[in-house]
Amino acid sequence: MLSFPSHTQKKVQVHFTPFHPPPPTPDFDNDGYLDKNDLVNTLKCLCGPEQLQVYEMQLVSDKILEEADLDGDHRLSYVEFEHVISRAPDFVNTFRIRI
After folding, report:
1. CATH class of the domain comprising 24-94
2. Bigger pLDDT: 40 or 23?
3. Which of 13, 26, 30, 89 is 20 to 30 A from 40 in CA distance terms?
């Protein structure tokens, strides 16, 4: 059981409560990680299957993993995903794919 001092703000307590689920991520196989297949599926959802060629989706997925995979296991943990998104706070508003 996790306990906090009585003076700890409620906002902090909720953030660190172990039963508070993280926000959803595009983990299509529900293994707790984003691997290359999850990234390709995300690209298909974002762009439509006809917008990018298979090799382009593979290339984008490789580049994402190259940039964001901090421990070199060829997949992104929630912490790695959160880290890369936090580096771009306006990600949702400015996300573009250029090939």
Report:
1. mainly alpha
2. 40
3. 89
